Amino acid sequence: MTTAVRLPQPQGWKIPQYIGAMAAAYAFIGGLISLTGWLTGIPRLTDWWNTGVSIKANTAIAITAAAVGLLTLVFPFKNSRRVGQGLGLFTLLIGGVTLLEHITNFSVGIDTLLFDEPAGALATSAPGRMGPPAALCFLALGIALFLRASGTCKTLGVALSLAAVGISMLSLVGYWYGAKVMYMLPRVSGIAAQSATMLLALGVGIISTYPDREPMKTLCEDSGIGILARRVITAAFIVPLVLGWLNIQGTRAGIYDSAFGTALRSIIEIVILISVLGWSIQAIRLRELRQRRAEAERQITEQRLVHMLESMTDGFVTFDESWHFNYVNGEAARIFSRDPTELIGTVLWEEFPEIINTPLHAELHRAALARISIEVESPDFVASGSRHFRHRIYPAVEGGLSVYMQDVTARKQAEDALREANRRKDEFLATLAHELRNPLAPIRSAAAILMEHNVPPPTIQSSATIIDRQVRHMARLLEDLLDIARISRSRLELRKAHIDLTR
Questions:
Q1: 160-184 pLDDT, tens per residue?
Q2: CA angle 485, 490, 491 (to 5 degrees)
Q3: Would you put residue 104 in left (φ > 0), alpha (ψ -120 to 50) or beta?
């Protein structure tokens, strides 16, 4: 018979928290730096990569607000829910209004509300107005922030965050390869490189706050699938970007032509991806091997535990929260006069209704409710009270109870015998006191007569005879009492001698 063991769960919840904290910190610091560029008029602070496309003031403000909202999700406090909802609404409002301006070609005045931007800025359709890609990202991220702070529509929140990640990734890949069409609408509008990086961070950060939803659920899973997902997704992002950039640089430098570079890139990608896959498979194999060893050790431990429980001289049973028998050792089965397989899964009160409304019934419920250890003695409810048991009740980790049953019938009988012996001793002492007191009355009367004046000789003789007879009687009683004391102390000496049976 085996028992189930609950294994500890992996503590994967910290990984999403770290990701969210780092993403929020990067976006917040980046937003403040960009705002500082607008306040101080330093162009390089609004165009980190010197591409000519600057981050707009409204974009920096929205990024900063969204980063603070993400921080409230990662590190919640008393009113963090309301703060997160408010910042989410603020972010989606900026993105939605700007997107409406692009669609209707009508300005509502928010683009130059804080800072004036000269006309003719690169990739700018109107002074101070962020491009459609950034506006779409803020609209999606604002809704996602509001939903996450509200705790509703989790799947939609993840989908919107993934959409923002996809848009920002498209722009960043365009910057990485120098493909302007990927981050700039031809001659109309675009998105700054630093804006794309911070929007990507915000999207990833919001996704990390959903550890119970994909993709974070799989990425944080402490399993072979989680290991494979983490390694493959890392390689899938890094390898193509690096090799693609090297291919373009080699082609531009004239080291090789486009066809050779593409073929070489494909071969290297295949080799790297196969290596990553093999590395992951090896890690999964080692993990499974450790798990099999741990399982084998657990089974050995369980077998030892079961052997120990079965060899106990005390009965041992376990119950779940609903009072179903989970385990019954051999001694407990003998006490119950049942086979263990008949009891496993049955309810205690249904199998043994005799326990109901007994002290044992009350103590079992008290231990289950208060989660405390209790000892209680009670008669055997199976054998109609012919035996007595001491029950030691302990709360189990899973919520049920573990009960040890020790047969204390012999001790109970010894206690009863001792009480009976004490009762007989008390009776004996009372009788002895009575017997010793009886001769005192004649002795006292005879002594009183002897103390009188002018007592006739016959009266003196009679009184002396009474005193002598009663004293000999008391002496015999005391001799018997001393013999009893010698017998009880094993100090009675037998004197062996030949005697005349006729005499």
A1: 999 999 999 988 888 888 877 777 7
A2: 75
A3: alpha
